[in-house]
Design goal:
Layout lengths: L1 H17 L13 E12 L12 E2 L3 E6 L6 E4 L2 E5 L3 E6 L5 E5 L3 E8 L5 E2 L11 E4 L4 E3 L2 E8 L1
Parallel strand pairs: 1-11, 1-12
Antiparallel strand pairs: 1-2, 1-7, 3-6, 3-8, 4-5, 5-9, 8-9, 8-10
């Protein structure tokens, strides 16, 4: 009987300590956008004795607009002073760079607010849409962002 009691206690403790809560005010996103924000800075050129720099996740405020084009942004790519499109949502990434947001189906532009107070958009498409992402019904679009305006390749 002692064996079964000890086994049951060990199993309960293992279960208790293996379950952890994730700090996530939105819960699990079932329709919207999620991704990771990483930062690349400095000399990224390969070399014979150079190890590849590790990309690190960073905390940023993510601004999600109705899809915006380059003509709706003030400034020069990849940094913009403002975006003249409807702001749909604003979320914070955590210390590892992870962010997520519940959104309705549609097309969005996803930009980060940098320490300089400017908005970063590292991508655009043939229609000059800034960092475009499409959210489909009952789906989560994965959109990872690499902030690399201070990197040299």
């Amino acid at each position: 009987m002692k064996f079964y009691t000890a086994f049951l206690c060990a199993a309960m403790l293992t279960l208790f300590y293996s379950c952890s809560t994730q700090k996530n005010p939105q819960g699990v996103v079932t329709q919207g956008i999620k991704g990771t924000i990483t930062l690349s800075e400095g000399n990224m050129m390969p070399g014979p004795d150079k190890k590849e720099s590790a990309k690190k996740g960073v905390q940023r405020t993510v601004y999600i607009y109705s899809v915006a084009t380059g003509s709706q942004a003030v400034g020069e790519a990849p940094l913009f002073k403002s975006v003249k499109s409807k702001l749909v949502a604003k979320v914070e990434s955590d210390s590892t760079g992870f962010y997520q947001c519940n959104l309705k189906p549609g097309r969005y532009s996803v930009l980060t607010l940098e320490k300089s107070g400017q908005f970063f958009s590292g991508l655009s498409n043939a229609n000059t849409e800034l960092s475009p992402v499409e959210v489909l019904e009952n789906a989560v679009a994965v959109y990872d962002i690499m902030i690399n305006y201070n990197a040299v390749y």
